Amino acid sequence: RTELAKDFITGGQNNVGLRVPEHTVALALLKEFEKQGGLGIAAPSANRFGAVSPTTASAVKIELADFLSEKDQILDGGPCLVGVESTIINCTQNKPSILRPGAVTKEMVEDSLGITIDLNTSNSESMQIKAAGLLESHYAPNAKIFLTGSPTLGDGFIALESFTTPSGAVRVASPKTNEEYAQVLYEAFRLADIKGLKRVFVIPPTGGGIAVAINDRLSKSAFEK
After folding, report:
1. Disulfide: which of 38, 157, 180, 207 matches 169 by Cβ 3.0-4.6 Å?
2. What percent of the chain has pLDDT over 90?
3. What's the whole-model pTM score?
4. Closest-CA residue to 192 (of 160, 137, 148, 151)
């Protein structure tokens, strides 16, 4: 960090996290702010600590409505294109490493840098850096999430469309691909809470790419690993 990033931005840390959005509305906001003399926008994610991340403007309103003033505004750019949170890359060491996997995959970073990097989502290095989503328990809905076992009558169920819904289970998401899985995961968690479900059983996706990020979020949200 430099003097441009004050303590209220970094939480008193010596490091600063930077990101550039891909969304046209967010980019337009940044460019307009720059025209007015702004150097950047410092902001947390639009959810309460540890809660399920909102992926639509309506979900943001539900999440934060009780904490907003009349002057606060919600900028609606449509549903999140990816769904799960962004990749966090630690660049404070000689060799970069990924602390939180996202749509920018390990392979993409390695192709860009021309070196191999580590995926450190739960080791001592990631614990030394305070950043979003690094706690062992995070992203969890009110319903208890299970990554093993089978649902019974009245339990929620999330899996790729190719998996048949068990008898008596309440299907809350049927994504066709891993990419769609990432897009709908948090909305499925919210739907489970809206329906008042106590338990949700999830069949995690397999493979690399975005599946790594999805499984990271599922592991942190699970009641029973």
Report:
1. 157
2. 48
3. 0.82
4. 151
